[in-house]
Amino acid sequence: MLSLRGVRKSYGGTPALRPVDLDLVAGELVVLTGPSGSGKSTLLMIAGGWETPDGGEIVPRPPLPEVPVDRMSWRDLGFVPQSISLFEELTLADNLALARGGPGGAELLEALELGHLAARRPGEVSRGEQQRAAVARALVAAPSLVIADEPTSHQDHRRARLVLDLLRAAAVRGAAVLIASHDAAVVSRADREIRLDAPAVAPG
Ligand SMILES: Nc1ncnc2c1ncn2[C@@H]1O[C@H](COP(=O)(O)OP(=O)(O)OP(=O)(O)O)[C@@H](O)[C@H]1O
Q1: Per-domain residue ranges for the chain?
Q2: What value of ipTM does the predicted structure carry?
Q3: Given strand 145-149, what is the order of strands in its sheet?
Q4: Ligand 1 centroid – CA 11 distance (Å)
């Protein structure tokens, strides 16, 4: 689905992500773990096209189109950034409609216990509800690839399970799913774990 080869990133000369190889395949739920600061978010931002690597290659494979990841639509790639990043001026329903390219997604909002909040804007719901709406937005167009950064970090146990059930369902229908998480519940439900070590701090 997507191959990353030797992808790396530094900020101001300080490594944020050591060169990483990663292959994502259809139907598999992969969890990315590692200590705080090891580069999980950096890797996900690069894989999702929200950040540019300093080096390495990102190769999309069918059913993804042969375009750079930052040009993919929500139908190809659903992304849940750590920052959540919903459009503040749109309701939750309209955030989903924008990703889907038309109305829909009511059943996803219901499944995430957000149905009664569909007409509210992100600023009018809790952080956990915003995060679940971001999960719904990532899944609403049934993308081939789903990337989610700590998608249960603001959830209670029960809601975390709802989120995980939907991410697992995406993998069952054939999506490749990559999740960064510290949550043992996420790790226990993954098909594969990829662990990042903290990069050595550059001398001087
Ligand atoms: N925009 C940035 N400018 C400078 N340094 C950054 C920037 N983004 C991340 N870093 C640094 O890069 C390293 C990796 O950060 P990243 O957020 O990818 O780690 P992480 O494994 O996701 O951490 P956490 O588990 O705490 O979310 C950290 O040392 C961080 O301080």
Answers
A1: 2-195
A2: 0.96
A3: 77-80, 145-149, 176-180, 29-33, 192-195
A4: 9
Residues 126-142: what's their mean pLDDT?
98
Reported as a single tens digit per residue, the pLDDT across 166-203 is 999 999 999 999 999 988 889 999 999 999 987 655 54
Q: How far, in Å, from the CA of 34 to the mean position of ligand 1?
A: 12
CA distances from 141 to 51, 57, 156, 202, 204 (A): 22, 26, 26, 42, 47
Q: How far is the CA of 119 from the centre of ligand 1 (A)?
A: 34
Provide the token pair at 62.
Answer: 């069918």
Evaluate if pTM is beyond 0.90. yes
CATH architecture, domain defined by 2-195:
3-Layer(aba) Sandwich (3.40)
Report the residue among 8, 9, 32, 36 best suited for mutation to probe ligand 1: largest number of ligand atoms under 8 A from its CB: 36
Instruction: Choose one of 10, 38, 80, 83 to mutate for the ligand 1 pocket test, by most ligand atoms within 8 angstroms of C-beta.
Output: 38
Residue 198 has a pLDDT of 73
